[in-house]
Amino acid sequence: APPLLPPSKGLTTAEAEALMAIHGKNELEEHVTPSWLVFLKCLWGPMPGMLWAAGIIEFALENYIDGAILFAILFANAIIGWYETIKAGNAVKALKASLKPTATVHRDGKWVNMDASLVVPGDLVKLAAGSAVPADCSINEGEVDIDEAALTGESLPVTKDHTSSTAKMGSNVVRGEVDGTVQFTGMKTFFGKTAMLIGSVGNNLGNVHFIIIRTVAILTAFSLLLCIIVFIYLLAGKFRLNFRDSLEFTIVLLVVSVPLAVEIVVTTTLAL
Asked: What is the pLDDT of residue 96?
């Protein structure tokens, strides 16, 4: 672990700006998916794939009206899914903005309240009961009780003093008031490193979304198997239909055999 900075007496604005240029803002990196890519993702998957295949087959059979209807359903589902996904993302951004923490920092010889994202290593900050810890901070002197349940799962507050480990970003002060020196900010904090480890797994899907995709894949596979059996039966079984009629019936069965809008319905419901 890198050595800790000595207790701070506060920084000037010029010093803070210089340190900001080196360390960057005190915030976690966010991977934002472009809006157009969200829309393209709504056009890809087991359900959209079935509609693509069914629409192409209908056009190949010169059933242009049926093919156009299938593609209209495909793009309508994609637009609704895109809209609900974007709306849900905007709601989360608005919530984050409303909960944005502030910090009491000693700058240019006086205490000022500022956006916690502007805190830099070496800043002198006030850690008081009811406030959020803006970054990983060491305690200059005295002691304070900090709630770290969100980080460690510890149900009881932890007492911190100048001899203990740093007060971590993302925790909250529940008792006492002390001055602290900012040691690490942004992705270098304990919270930031944890977020980086979670992000390195590479799975951007939430648990609910993962379950939906798995369910849809199972339904799609079952429907395809059923349609293949029906298609073969229509060709070689009792009815002895020609290839074109058998294929048209199978396409209709394929489209109606699975809930095409299940993902959109779940997304819309969760966004309410």
From this structure: 61
Per-residue pLDDT tens over the stretch 69-100: 889 988 988 888 888 778 777 766 665 665 56
List b or e across 187-201, with b for residues whose CB sees 16 or more CB atoms inside 10 angstroms: bbbbbbeebeeeeee
CB 140 within 8 A of CB 110: no
Q: CB–CB of 202/233 below 8 Å?
A: no
Question: Are the beta carbons of 48 and 143 closer than 8 angstroms?
Answer: no
pLDDT (tens digit, 9 = 90+) per residue, 185-237?
988 888 888 877 765 544 455 566 777 778 878 888 888 898 889 888 888 87
Q: How far is CA 78 from the centre of its chain?
A: 20
pLDDT, one tens digit per residue, over 193-202 is 887 776 554 4
For residue 248, which phi and psi values (nearest 5 degrees)?
A: -60, -45
Q: Are 81 and 37 in contact (CB under 8 A)?
A: no
Please tell me what DSSP assigns to residue 201. Answer: T
In the chain, what is the greatest distance between 2 CA atoms, to the nearest angstrom? 93
Between CA 213 and CA 203 the distance in angstroms is: 13
Q: What is the Cα–Cα distance from 174 to 128, expressed in whole angstroms? A: 8
